[in-house]
Design a protein that fits this description.
The structure is a single chain. The chain is of the alpha/beta class. The chain is built from 25 helices and eleven strands. The strands form three sheets. Strands 2-3-4-1-5 form a five-stranded parallel β-sheet, sandwiched between helices. The protein has a four-stranded antiparallel β-sheet with strand order 8-11-9-10. The protein is elongated, with a radius of gyration of 34 Å.
């Protein structure tokens, strides 16, 4: 492997943390400790919240590892599969609301895991600890209820099924000196009886922690983590109760077991943010949201590149030798990470795709600008499909909104989007009647912004979901499609302006195959004066665009690009050469005036706020159209239309 070219060995890792751990890259230095990881490791935060692909599972896998960066104490990872999720969703108790009932089943799972840990831990870490009465009681309880290791209750769904039956009927509590049939007979309801049984079990676990002195000081606490709940969540009330119950259970157990047990719940942001329950405000202090900056993604890319290639790979060599320094006039890291949603999975996919285009497809020893461009187009198509999949449960209509943005500019105003949505609303409501309340103009803007598809213009910046916590406000009227999705949608220019097409063949001018007229005269012929008029009109429009400082930069650049194309064509015609290159100047002026008329109409129909200066630009364009038409009509040559400059 060492004799292979560096680019052949370059790999940024797998998209999922589980395979990264299996293949060793994550543990060889491919993991970048961030604020979320430090908060999780320190125990100061209990809820690690992030979008799909933001690195939640990577943090989880790192903490589960036995190497550097892993949790030093006991650790348990709970990842419900569909069967286990269905068991929790269906669990109910007479006399208790759904959230409270599901909290009890989660508390039972936590208590059983803690009891199993204590029985095993007492044998290895505490001399004679396994002979402690409270530990022996836990061992008997686990055995009597089929929860002991090797007792047939290995799978989570099996333990949940047993726990559910026990809580709904009666657990075997003789190990704690309780006969359920006698001592719990007077419970007023099924829910009250289940809660009382669970309290007895939890008190037995807490007593064993105390008797062993496991308070997180002598040795690290037990780390109990829950991940991948999105695999069993389906946006229905029972699924929401399952997650809310988990939150209640973790908070209760954390208070009960104190420093002996540390809880970490890894939750997808869209799931957590969709929950609505009365005590939600009590969890804010436990929240830690994963956020990635462009610099953090750049650091992660370098860490993973070095883990695959070796310590000799410098950051400068990565971004200046293996990758092209610039792409389309943009610095390489800004180009790459600006086209990803701010999460590691997207960055890893795009970087690996660039490497594959260069090495696997072309056997190059470095990545070219063309490789990056080709990878970017494929990546954009991937991400548009992935966004549909990511939000399929919560927003099944998302894919049907994408045509509103296809083959048009990536800058879109509220007014323009309203016109497009109005044309599609009837079909959307017919196809998704259950989501009619969300399928309004404000509703789809909120969904598209929350999913990271649309950014909102605030001042001179475009803000995407995750950049700040502020949702789209009713007065905000200008949006941009995220660069990640533009290529797949065909929305590669800021504004849907018709491209200006040259009116004559540049090759004749470039070859010198023309015969300038009146070469010995210092006076300008009529054609030259008309072309000068056209050039002055272009400069006048460009000056007005430059004064529209509130206009979105990308829109301003797009207008400037098209006007400069007109100007460049004029400047390529040498004095006196119009006729010899086959250019009918009058027709050229009128054709360009017609293009300018359409340009002004597009600007007025754009929906851009008048305060941006777009109206002043449109008016200036219309004024220049009138000048050009009068000039082509023959008034130029007297003093007629040459004034005003």
């Amino acid at each position: 492997m060492a004799d292979q070219p560096v680019l052949a060995r370059l790999h940024f890792g797998r998209e999922d943390a589980e395979r990264d751990v299996t293949e060793g890259l994550l543990l060889r230095g491919g993991f970048l400790p961030n604020a979320a990881y430090r908060g999780a490791l320190s125990g100061r935060k209990m809820l690690i919240i992030g979008r799909k692909g933001s690195g939640k599972s990577a943090i989880c896998m790192q903490l589960m590892s036995d190497g550097e960066g892993g949790h030093r104490g006991g650790k348990v990872l709970v990842t419900p599969d569909e069967a286990a999720g269905e068991e929790i969703r269906r669990f109910e108790l007479q006399g208790l609301p759904g959230d409270s009932a599901k909290a009890l089943i989660w508390r039972y799972v936590f208590a059983v895991h803690a009891a199993r840990h204590l029985v095993d831990h007492a044998k290895g870490a505490h001399a004679g600890g396994h002979r402690t009465d409270s530990v022996k009681a836990l061992g008997r309880f686990l055995k009597q209820n089929g929860e002991a290791p090797g007792g047939g209750g290995g799978r989570l769904v099996e333990r949940l099924a047993k726990g559910a039956r026990g809580l709904q009927t009666s657990l075997s509590l003789e190990a704690f000196g309780v006969k359920a049939s006698v001592d719990l007979a007077q419970s007023p309801s099924e829910g009250a009886r289940a809660a009382r049984q669970l309290e007895i079990v939890e008190q037995g676990v807490a007593r064993a922690f105390t008797d062993l002195g496991c308070d997180g000081v002598v040795h690290p606490p037990l780390l109990l983590m829950v991940d991948q709940l999105e695999q069993v969540w389906s946006a229905d009330p029972d699924s929401n109760s399952m997650v809310i119950g988990l939150l209640f259970a973790a908070k209760h157990a954390a208070g009960l077991y104190g420093r002996s047990v540390r809880f970490l719940l890894f939750l997808r942001a869209d799931i957590y943010d969709s929950l609505s329950f009365g005590e939600g405000d009590k969890f804010h202090g436990d929240e830690l949201r994963i956020a990635w900056t462009e610099q953090a993604l750049k650091d992660l890319a370098w860490a993973r590149a070095r883990a695959s290639v070796g310590e000799e790979l410098t950051e400068e060599r990565l971004w200046k030798e293996l990758f092209p320094e610039m792409v389309g006039g943009e610095e390489i890291t800004g180009h790459l990470f600006g086209r990803c949603l701010s999460r590691p999975r997207d960055a890893i996919q795009l970087l690996n795709l660039c490497q594959e285009k260069a090495w696997l497809d072309h056997e190059r020893d470095r990545i070219t600008e063309a490789d990056v461009a080709q990878a970017g187009r494929q990546f954009s198509e991937w991400k548009l499909k992935d966004l549909t999949s990511e939000y399929l449960v919560a927003h099944p209509f998302l894919r049907n909104l994408f045509p509103l943005f296809q083959n048009t500019g990536y800058v879109v105003t509220r007014a323009a989007l309203a016109r497009r949505f109005e044309a599609a609303a009837e079909t959307l409501h017919h196809d998704f009647p259950a989501y009619a309340n969300a399928l309004t103009l404000p509703g789809i803007i909120d969904v598209l912004h929350g999913a990271g598809f649309l950014g909102v213009r605030r001042g001179n910046d475009v803000v995407y979901a995750g950049d700040d916590g502020l949702p789209v406000q009713p007065h905000e009227a200008e949006f941009q499609v995220h660069p990640c999705f533009r290529a797949a949608l065909g929305a590669t220019t800021a504004f849907d302006l018709r491209r200006y097409e040259p009116q004559f063949v540049d090759a004749r001018i470039a070859s010198g195959n023309y015969s300038p007229g009146a070469s010995g005269s210092s006076s300008l012929n009529r054609d030259d004066r008309l072309l000068m008029q056209l050039a002055r009109s272009c400069h006048s429009i460009l000056a007005q665009v430059g004064r529209a400082v509130a206009l979105t930069r990308d829109v301003r650049d797009e207008i400037t690009l098209q006007i400069n194309r007109v100007l460049a064509e004029v400047n390529r015609i040498p004095p006196g050469a119009a006729a010899s290159v086959g250019l009918d100047v009058d027709d050229h002026l009128l054709t360009t005036a017609h293009y300018f008329t359409n340009l002004a109409a597009q600007l007025r129909a754009s929906g851009l706020e008048e305060s941006t200066g777009v109206g002043d630009v449109a008016r200036r364009v219309e004024e220049e159209v009138r000048r050009l038409r009068r000039s082509a009509g023959g008034s130029y040559g007297s003093s007629g239309d040459s004034s005003g400059y």
